[in-house]
Design goal:
By secondary structure, this protein is an alpha+beta fold. The protein contains eight helices and 17 strands. Belongs to the FBPase class 1 family.
Length: 341
């Protein structure tokens, strides 16, 4: 890459321009999705700024409250949640919001109500804030059809019904990865312009990867197929090189690496968490949506992740996602286990 030439580019594809270009392909579009996305982008910029100056602004540390998941809330968690709720409501395009930080869904008042439902984790990986590990925002978007008034049932749908999903990672750079169901694109925030610029067009995950990502501290509680897959990663029987273990413990960071480099990200069910640990609506579904649109797969140990039908807004699920061939191997191990039973 010619960095010197790149620094003087003037024809930049910003995320707003990108979405407007996509919108122009649908003459019937009213621009509502573009407006909604602009408000999500604004929320991401605000949180990015807050994360970058968290230490100086005394935003690091605990807020002193426990959220619905039983986790201590960090100050930045609370701030990020407020930022996204206000940004989404003020867009005038949302009707129902589901946040990791709130016990109940937020029903938008009729005067500001639109046709989109947004599910989001305002600050994923926040336990890593104090040690400056990459953290991020995850979001998924559903659309309510015009033939009925919005209800919670419009959110409790399979992930395959989402119209868009993405995440924004706050790390060495601020990167927003988005899919509207036709491919996956990555945008990086240029602080000098205050704009997200298209830097990773048409992301495609390698068909097979060399990395696996899992919390091996839980190994004693794993089921047979998970343990067998990890053993195969370490001691392949076909003579191929062993896979490398890379685990950050921040889902956004681990999935982002998996998306770009290939391999698998796993958070399986185990004896401690028989229903899995990650939340279906705002963690499993958006990341699975992105992974499938980049050519990978997402699997729960029983079925395609995007076919799950949540019954509660904070439902949890096991998840295996990543390169197509690697997930095929995991699916085969679970199928073989099922035949034994």
């Amino acid at each position: 890459m010619d960095h010197a030439a790149d620094a003087h580019r003037t024809d930049l594809m910003t995320i707003t321009r990108f979405v407007l270009n996509e919108q122009s392909k649908y003459p019937e579009s009213r621009g509502d999705f573009t407006i909604l996305l602009n408000h999500i982008v604004l929320g991401c910029k605000f949180v990015c700024s807050s994360v970058n100056k968290a230490g100086l602004a005394k935003l690091i540390g605990l807020a002193g409250e426990i959220n619905i998941q039983g986790e201590e809330q960090k100050k930045l968690d609370v701030l990020s949640n407020e930022v996204f709720i206000k940004a989404l409501v003020s867009s005038g395009r949302t009707c129902i919001l589901v946040s990791e930080e709130d016990e109940d869904a937020i029903i938008v008042e009729p005067s500001k109500c639109g046709r989109y439902c947004v599910v989001f984790d305002p600050l994923d990986g926040s336990s890593n804030i104090d040690c400056v590990v990459s953290i991020g925002t995850i979001f998924g978007i559903y659309m309510v059809k015009d033939d009925h008034e919005p209800t919670l049932a419009d959110v409790l749908q399979p992930g395959k019904q989402m119209v868009a999903a993405g995440y924004c990672m706050y790390g060495s750079s601020c990167t927003l990865v988005l899919s509207t169901g036709k491919g996956v694109n990555g945008f990086t925030l240029d602080p000098s312009l205050g704009e997200f610029i298209l830097t990773h067009p048409d992301i495609r995950i390698p068909k097979k990867g060399k990395i696996y990502s899992v919390n091996e501290g839980n190994a004693k509680n794993w089921d047979g197929p998970t343990a067998k897959y990890v053993e195969n990663c370490k001691f392949p029987k076909d003579g191929s090189p062993s896979k490398s273990l890379r685990y950050i413990g921040s889902m956004v960071a681990d999935v982002h690496r998996t998306l770009l480099y290939g391999g698998t990200f796993m958070y399986p069910a185990d004896k401690k968490s028989p229903s899995g640990k990650l939340r279906v609506l705002y963690e499993v579904f958006p990341m699975s949506f992105l992974m499938e649109n980049a050519g990978g797969q997402a699997f729960t140990g029983k079925q395609r992740a995007l076919d799950l039908v949540p019954t509660k807004i904070h439902d949890r699920s096991p998840i295996f996602l990543g390169s197509y061939d690697d997930i095929e191997e995991i699916k085969a191990l679970y199928a073989a286990e099922g035949k034994k039973e």
